[in-house]
Amino acid sequence: DKLLLEVKDLHVSFDTYAGEVKAVRGVNFHVNRGETLAIVGESGCGKSVTAQTIMQLIPMPPGKIKKGSIIFDGNDLAKYSDKKMESVRGKEISMVFQDPMTSLNPTMKVGKQIMESLIKHQKMSKDEAKKRAVEMLKLVGLPTPEKRVEQYPHEFSGGMRQRAMIAIALACNPKLLIADEPTTALDVTIQAQIIELMKDLQIKLDTAIILITHDLGVVAKISDRIAVMYAGVIVESGTSNEIFYEPKHPYTWGLLKSVPRLDLERKERLLPIYGTPPDLFSPPAGCPFAARCDYAMKICKEKYPQKFGITDTHHVHCWLQHEMAPEVKHPLAEGG
Ligand code: SF4
Ligand code: MG
């Protein structure tokens, strides 16, 4: 069975004094073993909440899974108790975050932080765990790993800390790695190295990856498939080629316009998407992107766009795909 994770009709809300924030509003996606799915969208679109819900890392309350299932390797994680999740986190599914300083323990040697999960989940002896910690630091490309295991996080540079985080996350050889903006805090050269490293490790270890990012440029090299998220829903999904070369949703066009194009002669101005996402206390009944969309029609404001299949792998929620809609050529097709 190649299917590893299937998220079905997931709804996640947060109770606040101002009312219920509907952060995730019916999300569906799957991840196959060993592949990379990127979830892309602006901040606040629900991508991090989705990831944290898979790991049960959202505070409940005020957070709540209102509906849906998270089938991982045949079991529904949405029904797992906190205690049962303990045996999944770090062992079956691991997570790396944007800022390693918040997830690394500053008072504990890096080697010891890798050893902890090995001793807990793999029941390794201290000596075995230490040997494995050195191997892991070597695997993530840290020079002199024997010295590095004995050092504290503050003795590492930003890029090295992110490598150490990845070493911790992968130590128990999880089936799934969730990386939430793993390179956002790093400068561009280091970003590229970390992405390269993740791709390399994925091939070596056969780990599936969910890569969460606001930057479509980051995902280009590493993703097999891409899901574009907006205002708590997935508006378009497809293979990387489909999303990059045949995008169908106006929001995806906007995201692509803000990626620097290396294949264009002229230096294109990066175009921001004007406007702000809808309020998630009372999301609109129609298309959530309507208020910002250059192509919005009457129906867009009234009715939520159904799912249109472009290919077996490519789906979009946009009324432009309706047979009655006018034909619109996406702006990138004409060469930017
Ligand atoms: Fe724009 Fe309408 Fe498509 Fe929404 S459904 S993205 S408003 S054209
Ligand atoms: Mg986030």
From TrEMBL:
Q: Keywords, A to Z? A: ATP-binding, Cell membrane, Membrane, Nucleotide-binding, Transport
Query: What are the residue boundaries of the ABC transporter domain, all occurrences included?
Result: 5-256
State whether keyword Cell membrane applies: yes
- Any one GO MF annotation of this record: ATP hydrolysis activity
Q: Which protein, by its recorded name, is this?
A: ABC transporter ATP-binding protein
* Family to which the UniProt record says this protein belongs: Belongs to the ABC transporter superfamily.
Q: Does the keyword Transport apply?
A: yes
